[in-house]
Write a structure and sequence with these properties.
The N terminus is likely disordered. The protein has 2 domains: 172 residues, Hypothetical Protein Tm1070, Chain: A; 142 residues, Immunoglobulin-like (Sandwich), CATH 2.60.40. The chain is built from 2 helices and 22 strands. By secondary structure, it is mainly beta. The protein is globular, with a radius of gyration of 20 Å. Helix content is 3%, strand content 41%. A hairpin with a 5-residue loop joins strand 10 and strand 11. The strands form 5 sheets. Strands 12, 14, 17, 18, 20 and 21 form a 6-stranded mixed beta sheet that branches. A 5-stranded antiparallel beta sheet has the order 4-3-6-1-9, with no helix packed on it. Strands 16-15-19-13-22 form a 5-stranded antiparallel beta sheet.
């Protein structure tokens, strides 16, 4: 038994931080959406490193549709059946592959990303850190999603050796001219934009001048139980303003050291560690000021006139830690959402 959780910082209980939040402008979990955002999806093959996604297309007879701000458009006993359409994007928000899956009302479907990539011979999606948007296949620029979608996702290492929860955010897929629309359609096969302003962590918006503060936990102990950490940060746009991002790296004794990292992409996956290097699945690193355990505080001031906003001028994203405990080969990877500190 560990006598002092603060000092040792084992991540065995961090998944409890994933409790659902219904507050506006915070990361919402467990609520339905016209569409879904899975902010981190990657595979190097089924049975190796993979992402598994669970989707339910609910019937409106079993949902209080008016209670949820992420549901819009007509929801009928027929619109909940048809096909869902998933789109996979790389770190720069470039669409790589897409596919459709038939569903019925109150149906469950599973998306085994690695198996799909292998079965359909889509090597361009292997070893690519990306994200996925899932919506009603009949939705378009002029037609809102008729579906009520729930989702869950998991990062799988090896043959189910470790299963880490990936947050899934509900999104609004109204007609593209609607002020609150968050999924913009170019054509049946392509999306133009995805910006979860309702269900995400609030980021700076117009007219600028504010900074969004949040922190992410890390655990890197080198003696048993050993640890490793990656940070996942999804933003609604690519932005050079985040290319040189100052952070404060705290240890467990309230001591902070200033450091820098780079998070310019829509999807950023940072390897955390004194010897960290980028690789196929990691877009950046944090090396300086690290202790066995602690947290990293980000202050993001990235609004520009080119920033992606919705009709209300809001921007939002999502960030979380993937914390491995016990070291290489026996890692049990767990998830901890960013601790939102608000706009200042």
């Amino acid at each position: 038994m560990l006598a002092n959780f603060k000092k040792v910082g084992v991540a065995a209980a961090v998944a409890a931080a994933l409790g659902a939040s219904g507050a506006a402008q915070a990361v919402i979990q467990g609520e339905p959406g016209d569409a879904l955002l899975i902010p981190f999806v990657a595979t190097n093959g089924a049975g190796k490193f993979n992402t598994m996604i669970s989707v339910i297309s609910a019937s409106p007879t079993n949902v209080n549709v008016g209670q949820f701000p992420t549901l819009t458009g007509p929801k009928t006993s027929t619109s909940c059946a048809g096909k869902i359409h998933w789109y996979f994007f790389d770190k720069n928000s470039v669409e790589i592959v897409d596919d459709k899956i038939a569903v019925t009302c109150d149906d469950w479907v599973g998306i085994d990303f690695g198996s799909i990539i292998a079965a359909k011979s889509l090597p361009s999606a292997l070893d690519v850190p990306g994200y996925m948007v899932i919506t009603d296949a009949s939705a378009s620029a002029t037609k809102a999603s008729g579906m009520i979608l729930y989702g869950a996702a998991y990062q799988i290492n090896g043959n189910w050796a470790s299963q880490a929860y990936i947050p899934v955010l509900p999104m609004i897929d109204d007609v593209d001219t609607a002020a609150r629309d968050e999924v913009r359609h170019l054509s049946e096969a392509f999306l133009d934009d995805a910006n979860p302003v309702t269900a995400g962590m609030l980021l700076p918006g117009a007219p600028g001048g504010q900074t969004a503060y949040f922190s992410l936990r890390y655990y890197l102990q080198q003696t048993a139980p050993t640890g490793d950490t990656s940070f996942v940060l999804w933003f609604p746009d690519n932005n050079a303003a985040r290319s040189t991002q100052t952070v404060l790296v705290f240890n467990a004794d309230e001591v902070a050291i200033s450091a820098r990292t780079s998070i310019p992409y829509e999807l950023n996956v940072l390897k955390v560690g004194v010897d960290a290097t980028t690789d196929a699945l990691h877009t950046g690193v944090i090396r300086d000021g690290l202790a066995d355990t602690g947290f990293v505080e980000f202050g993001v001031n990235d609004y520009t006139t080119a920033s992606t906003v919705n009709g209300f001028g809001s921007r939002a994203g999502v960030a979380f830690s993937l914390i491995g405990v016990n070291g290489a080969g026996t890692d049990q990877t767990q998830t901890e959402l960013a601790h939102e500190r608000g706009l200042k």
